[in-house]
Amino acid sequence: MNTKTTVISRQSLEEQFSYCDRIAALWAGAGRTPKAYVETYGCQQNEADSEKLRGFLAQCGYAMSTEAEGADVVIFNTCAIREHAEQRVFGNLGALTHTKRRHPEQKIFLCGCMAGEPSVQERIKKSYPHVNGVFSTHHLWQFPQLLWNVLQDNKRLFYTEDEPGSIAEGIPQVRDSGLKAWVSIMYGCNNFCTYCIVPYVRGRERSRKPEDILAECRSLIESGVKDITLLGQNVNSYGKDLDCGVDFADLLARIAQLPGDFLVRFMTSHPRDASEKLFDTMAAYPRIAKQLHLPFQSGSSRVLKAMNRHYDRETYLNKVAYAKKVMPDLVLTSDVIVGFPGETAEEFEETISLIQTVHYDSLFTFIFSPRPGTPAAKMEDTTPREEKNARFDRLCAVQNAISEEIHALYIGKTLRCLVDGQDKDMLTARTEGGRLVRFAGDASLIGSFQMLTITGATTWSLTGTLD
Which of 38, 135, 393, 411 could form a disulfide with 159 if both were Cys (CB 3.0 to 4.6 A apart)? Predict the structure, then answer.
């Protein structure tokens, strides 16, 4: 794996823009506006990457479509975290044979984390001849060149070489919302958790310069964005590769001091690098949302060591205790894996007890999924699937009861919420901690902060009234 970082030069990016111009001229000469469809799987980083792909496509003259049927370009931006996600992509990719049969000139591309796996590349070459191109995350910035070459030569192309991890500033973005925005502050991961494929498909950690991130955030705020989420596989390690004296807490503080009416939040946060300085910074600035996603993965120190997580149960609980001490209203969420190879019934009970001790607002729960190429895929796993399913169901029941209990405590409180949309005849809003609130109101309120009094609660959401 190539571990160097390449900063894509402005000249190289301008060359990509020249391909955009050629493609736009090609379609203008054909006398019609082409359509493009981008389907995103997986995490928020993939969502942010898809916004860049849509930005390139818009500059190439494409209008965005809501379906693959009839689109001139179809892109699947994929996730490789779990086997189920990969199989769903392959199933949907296979279904595109029908759309391409009806539209023979349709160009189909696969990108994202799956595209970085050699086994996936070979499977596409052998079994999916209707796919025109595959490109890994390292080659996203070259998409216009890939598209142009496919349009010109109608040959299948694979941009999947082990290129160094890159940072390309200035790629246009078409965002899904003018109210909320993802901002990638770094890419890749150095942690090499034994179950995780990310370091192999997204490369090593590389941070954007703080001035570039600040400029992007300032522009978003000036355009009316009210909620900014900073993204990275491990945002807490931001800046370690820059040697510029700015760590993640420093970056957060600088963003929080920008003028405007907005909130900034972040994910994902690795416990290994979550510091008291970070929690103190969150507590000190009103514009930093009091929401923390801090994956613990297992309540057993032995399992955590087998996962190569670089912390134990006690360390994790101490960090959570400090965060809650300086932020009493903190909304805390996490990830947990059930059925990691070798997990015993007693170790699973340690996970349950940690959940009961911490009292998470909500959890993202997963049954272990072996990923080829990771150390955990080679570990002996003797726990039957039925037992894993039973543990998973019990864990979800415990957490659902806690979530319902926490939500009930919101009733009677008046909270400042960002009104972000509609759900049938109700408006939807989000609390500072990201909790969903439904209430009656006029659509003109969408995009504004409003004070809402919470009147009802379920396991998953709240209801309220305008104060």
Answer: 135
